[in-house]
Amino acid sequence: MGEEERSLAGEIARVLDECRLSHAVHPRKLKELSALRSASVADAHAGLCFFAAFTRAVTPLFDFPRRTVSSERAVRFVSAFAARRDEKDAVVCDAFLEEFLRFLLVAAAAAHRPARFRACQIISEIIMRLPDDAEVSDELWDEVLDSMKLRVRDKVPAVRAFAVRALSRFVNDGDDSDITNLFLQTLCQEQNTEVRKTIVLSLPPSNMTSEAIVGSTLDVSESVRKAAYLVLASKFPLHSLSIKHRNIILQRGLSDRSSSVRKECLKMLKDEWLAKCCSGDLIALMRFLDVETYESVGEAVMEALFKDGTIILKEYQSPRQFLASNCENTEGCTSNIQLMDAEAALYWKILCRHLQSEAEAKGNDAATTTGTEAAIYASEASDKNDLLDEILPATVSDFVSLVKVHLSAGPNYCFTSRQLLLFGAMLDYSDVANRKVASEFVNELLLRPLEHEVDDDGNKIVIGDGISLGGDREWARAILELAKKVHASMGEFEAVVTSVIKELSQPCRERTADFMQWMHCLALTGLLLENIPSLWSLQGKAIEPSELLHSLLLPGAKHSHIDVQRVATRCLSLFGILERRPTGELVSQLRQSFIDGATSVRIMASKSLIDLFTWHGPQEVDKAIGIDIKQPNNEKEGLVSINSSNLRDDESIGLLDLLYNGLNSDDSGEVGDADDDESVHSILGEGFAKILLLSENYPSISTCLSPLILHKLVNLYFCDETKELQRLKQCLSIFFEHYPALSCTHKRCISTAFIPTMRSLWPGVYGKSGGPAITVSKLRKRAVLAAHFMLQMMQIPLFSNERKEDELSSGNLSSSVQTSDDFDSGEEGIAIRIAAEVAGCPEKKTSAGKSYILALCRIAASINFRPSEQHAIKCMRGLLNGMITSITRDKELVKELNLMAARLRSLDVHPDEGLSEDQSTALFGKLGLEGNLNIDTSTVIPPTPAPQSGRTATTRRRRVRREVSSSDDDAQSVPLVPMTPSQTNVRSHRTSKTAAMSKITNKTAVESSDDEDGESDVTSDEFSE
């Protein structure tokens, strides 16, 4: 029996060896091995021998961990043989398959990693190759599925990937949605790229999986993103996706950083969505994308298709067909002009823009080359221009008529009208007659009133943002492009617009205009101020700057209607930026709007004041209203805390103080009506972040104020009240990443702001209220998180080489280490500030104070010192004594600080030398600390041990001593690093022995305190007493 089995195993092994060499022999060897199996069927014993011999022959494959070409060929052959079903021997094939699957299930549950990997690999190959008519018992399939579900959570990524592949054939089974749920759950948690890619490729098309697949288009791995677009193209037809998903998919794919992902997205767009779902009709594809809502996506799609050459323009296609249309149905036609839908208007705009850019590019190429190549480029540019001329309206009058018809068609054609307006920037206005027609049309557009609705009470409600001309920023931009194209002469654009403003402002001056007329006039004024280089451009025009300010802008800011105030405040900001020096009346009005205005007006006033601050500087803005703050050496020590009731009466408050107090006001977090993510807090937070980044541009701002502002921004970032302000969160996260990397001065600012930030965030200290235990625990965790966040900011490397990094490793300390004095811009400064705070904290005996001290000491223990900062190292070594004295109850923390002391001693080039009084005074002065801190760099010098007695101490005496040391709190109150100055110079010639004995004593003291309980300084409300 054994001999026969060995013979069969040898024959099977020979077949496997031949199959490892080439795929070409697999079909022939499959027939050979099947014949060998069929020959053994007649004898029952031989049949059993064949299976045993087969498993014996393939067993070495389960011990081979690597995926080589030969091993992969062997796996494919074994899987193909197991899944092969011969109609003549169907029963034999099914029986062998079941036996082999059971064998593989045992291997899949093995502790040996290569065995699990090969088992899952072969199972997945068998399942993928298995024909539909294969008969396997339901019980066995259940076992296979359960085993593969378990392997999906295996710790080996390759095992997980093959388990997912094995289950992928069953995800379409309607009776079992557990596999799909498992895939979706695993996809969110999976860290391996190949496993995520396999899951994405295995997900079935459904509403439940579409969200996960669309989310995978943002995966960090290029291969996963590419797989997501492959699945979307093959499994999700265009009509099965929502409009939002369609636009998200195209927006991400066409702008992806990887060229292979962009190509896959473009392939999906062309071959599946455009060719199959829309029959090659680009306008029909645009209807699936809702271009009125997602205009930028529609533009990106058409530009990509035009550049790829997918779209071919037919001869009869042109916007002129809408002009020459003879409609039988008069509802869709006006004066023989057919109305154009939004998709067609966007299509023709992008096509004309593409042809114009191509013509310009070819013309530039022709100008930079010579000979035949230049002639070819010039010919191509001429062809593009000819095609553009055929598409555009033949005359300016036709263009004007086309736009007017769509304007008169109502608000439903506003999008189409805006697209058509942009055609005007491509027309030629060199002819006087054409320019006259276009000028009259531009004048009509500028005088066109705002769109509005009337509510049930008869009140007018403006349609749009209420700031831009026409209520839409894009509409205003389209009019601006057309106006500048028509009035291209020097000063002509300003003259035309100011004449229209003068006409519109006449009712406002006479106080006969309603709020709609005010808003229209101010919106046009804002458009003008945004697009002129300076106020000198308005000199000699219909309305000059002084008249514009006093007759329109300032009265508008004092108007009774809030929307008029908001638009006027924006115009005041634009006017102030264009001035060489801000006007006092303008600044006073903006300050008044910031103090007394409604929420939407205060938001706009905040933006305006920040703009004036960053453009002119705070000193110029304050001088405009008669405030001239002069401090010795230009050093203002702090920001003034202002009572909200005094803001209206006190005009001596500087702009910086005013804005800083705006961050402290309770109503600054209210969100305005115009933007759901804008508040005074978010505007001021973003503004102060810009001010700190550009602090070198504002020499009038004292360097002492930067830490105060930074401290406020950190509080704002970790504050619960600003959690919903996503724009502010994003802005500050970018700011905190770049601020410390710009200069060492910024890092000094972070170091200075560290302790004030901790004081303000920690509950129950320095006058800050506590609260319930749950609230206190949450606030403490938030404070610790902010502290570690600021430490990480200090660790960010500088962009510029303002200072050289240490070239010596910490292990190579010698006399060649150069001492630097840059500790105040590094983590060393924070560590010394923490030690000073621990020594001087007035609330050490309260529960909140004790937890505060413990948290600070833990943070200090995690700080690493640079070998070059020798003065800081010596200072910290001395201050550690006081820190350890303050936290003797927390033995684990004491151990950490002792380890820190050992590290510092090893970094100290001259550990026996201390800091002189002048050095310590200079060091503390550089950090802005008091100079009366006690610095003691002495180490523990235990008394000389008595001669050891020859009598062995009894176990009972040793036990009693241990019990006393663990229960007596007073005995434990002795610090591990005593601060006794009298012991400083005892036995100085035996320093090495002293240090060794100190370490032994410290270790014994720490081990004897293992039975003492303590509570966390972060999560507990009461300190262990």
From TrEMBL:
Keywords: Cell cycle, Cell division, Chromosome, DNA condensation, Mitosis. It is found in: Chromosome. Residues 1008-1025 have a biased composition (Acidic residues). It comes from the Eukaryota. GO terms for cellular component: condensed chromosome; condensin complex. The keyword Cell cycle applies. GO terms for biological process: cell division; mitotic chromosome condensation. It holds the Pfam family Cnd3. Residues 520-861 form the Nuclear condensin complex subunit 3 C-terminal domain. Residues 993-1006 have a biased composition (Polar residues). Residues 935-1025 are annotated as: Disordered. Belongs to the CND3 (condensin subunit 3) family. This is Nuclear condensin complex subunit 3 C-terminal domain-containing protein.
